[in-house]
Amino acid sequence: MLVSRSSELVGRVVGGRYRLLRPVGSGASAHVYVAEDVRLKRRVALKVLHPALAQDRSFLRRFQMEAQVVAALRHPGIVRVYDWGEEEEDAYLAMELLDGGSLRGLLDTGYRLTVSQAAALGVDVASALAHAHARGLVHRDVKPANLLFDEEGHASVADFGIARALAEASWTEPMGALVGTARYAAPEQLQGSPLDGRADVYALCLVLVECVTGAVPFARDTMLGALMARATQPVPVPEELGPLAPVLRAAGVPGPEDRLTAAELAERIAGAARHLRAPARLPVVGLVVTGTDQPEHTELGQGRRPPEGPGLSVLVDPPVVVDGPALAGVVADPEEDGARPPVPAAPDELEVVPVPVPVEVGPGGGTPPDQVAAGPEQVPEPGSADRPAPPAGPLAPGPVVQGRRSRRRQAKRARRELAERERREARAAKARARPRRWPRRAAALVVVAGASSGGVAAYYYLTLPPPTYSVPSLTGDLPGQAASALGTRHLELVVSGHDWSATTPSGRVLSQFPGRGSRLHAKQVVTVVLSRGPEPVAVPSLATLDLAQARSALVGQRLVLGTVAHVHSMTVPAGSVISWSATGRKVLPGTAVNVVLSAGKPRATVPSSAVGSSYSALASQLAALHLGVHELEQYDSSVAAGLVLSTSPAPGTSQVVGTVVTVDVSLGPHLVTIPSAIVGMSQGAATQYLLKIGLYVSGVQGSPLAAVSGSVPAVGQQVLYGRSIELLAG
Question: 20 to 30 Å CA-CA from 174: which of 193, 509, 535, 657?
């Protein structure tokens, strides 16, 4: 019957605004549809309450109050409530539409989460619950069916407020729904004790164990046996949950006073996740699986692959962030599908690669004695003692620091210098081809010297080649130091350019040509490239990131997190980055970037003196505190009209600015005037007439057959609603 009714409503426009497109499912309290908001042109999830609930005024009043509180919640892990309304015999709730389906639907396909996937899910859900608990709202019905995924695979908690409204309206759910809810209920919830947020923590513990193991803890032959075991024993968490096991044991103790809060649970799970590999991609089942064939479920994660088929999409889990130097040690599991690659540590220095250095070659392929160039001194790498030496040739390796952009510049520079060297060689060869005068002069000296021994020595001296000088290593020197070192060898220094370097300080020699050990003639030039220092990096955008994500983004750019400030914000969710220093600029690696985090919306306290005060005075106080107000009037025989009976949230509680406070205001005693219309009526007709206006007939004075002539109290007097009067007859 439920399915039939949900199908019949498709196409109808509810509340003059929401056109029902297709049913999604039916629960214990409502049918859920995909609907189109014809005003805003967006799709929403519309929950249409069952007719029995829609006609229960007590439930509707409580549910409306809960919907107003939930609508004030602003957290990415909580399904948003957009609107509420009533139409004829239907009541509805418009909510955010999440297309990824529920965790219940994913588990029903046979998929089991890995421990790292369960940790990521647990952090998301526990953070959302902590946000709601801090605002005085307890979910009471955390279960896989109420954990929904969007199309990107992020989980959100749905149905806040419905469980409380059902409980306070004494609504009796169908047995199936009761059993489904009781499977995840905390011991104090089943015992009827007062509840706080730790009941939700217990339920989440059961859900996370089921996600990994496939079974809900405390499975017994009977529900009674399961409930009795739950009241006295902690949740049995198997060791297969690894680092999550001790955290979930602390969340699954029977006594709520010994149990973790939702905020503590989120923090503990995040700490345990640092010891886990990055989670594999999580398949989401979607709202509707089209086609007739069921997708084949094979092994993935714990030996299962994601189900494939129409209506399914595979999405990536957020990575587990590891602080500080531990980033360099993160290793993704090569056997886990979709595992993310490790986050690389910021490099301390760039790669050193060989660059060809030309050596002058004399005519005929040999090297003349006056131009012999010794190869550069090479420092052996570790383990390279047994490696064969590189083949000899006209090019000798010279070290130069290679960056991504500097490689091309160095290669171009080497080619230019090689061409210049070849031009010099051509000029030198041309000069050698000219007639030489110094041999004739030497012969003349020999003639002058005659046969003396001094003549032989002079001839030998004049025929020697010009001297050469070894080029020293200049890397790391200041230009003045480099020029001085070359000057002692009769060589000259030329600065050919500048380049970035992560290892060489700014202003010092980064590379040189020719390299160390090369031999040059006097007055020849050694060109050097000076370092500009580390290349500035762009400060990344940190908008919408939380603190851990911001730290990870900065580390990826070789920056560090500086001071962290917290400021209230009406627009940015609590814990997200509002602003950061050096926005849109480039800074040196290692620079500290300061961030400002949102502390959430400012809070205000409902006046503790609200009950008993006048409604007008309380409304003014709430407006001054930036809290909304909703008035509900009711009769009360003991409180004068216009005075406050109660508030929700209760007086003295802290609420987020903008929260709507529902105020119950007394109308005073409910008085009814005894109508004069009963005079002349028969006694039976007068009795029925009085019942309709809330008065009872306790007896008749006079003849039982005579018409009514009056009453006690007298006709025209006011009496309390529900009071008994006597009729006068005859």
Answer: 193
Cis, peptide link before residue 256, omega less than 30° from 0: no
CATH number listed for the domain at residues 103-315 = 1.10.510.10
Longest dimension (CA), the chain: 181
| CATH code for the part of the protein at 671-729 | 3.30.10.20
Task: Please tell me the CATH code under which domain 2-95 is placed.
Answer: 3.30.200.20
Residues 362 and 435: their CA atoms lie apart, in Å, by 18
Per-residue pLDDT of 158-181, as tens digits, reads 888 676 666 555 444 443 344 346
Considering the chain, tell me which residue range(s) the CATH 3.30.200.20 domain(s) occupy: 2-95
CATH tag, 603-666: 3.30.10.20
Tokens, residue 412: 């171009």
Q: Report the pLDDT averaged over residues 259-276.
A: 91
* pLDDT band per the 50, 70, 90 thresholds, residue 370: very low
What kind and span of H or E run contains 178?
A: helix 175-182
Tell me, what's the pLDDT at 349?
A: 34
Q: Residue 224's pLDDT is what?
A: 64
Report the pLDDT value the prediction gives residue 7, as an integer from 0 to 100: 65
pLDDT at 387: 40
Domain 537-598, architecture per CATH: 2-Layer Sandwich (3.30)
pLDDT at 86: 85
Is 54 within 8 Å of 29 (Cβ atoms)?
no
C-alpha torsion angle, residues 448, 453, 455, 459 (rounded to 10): 160
How would you label 571-580 residue by residue, b for 16+ Cβ within 10 Å and e otherwise?
A: ebbbbbbbeb
Q: pTM for the whole thing?
A: 0.42
Active site residues: 141
Cα separation, 593 vs 555, in Å, equals 11
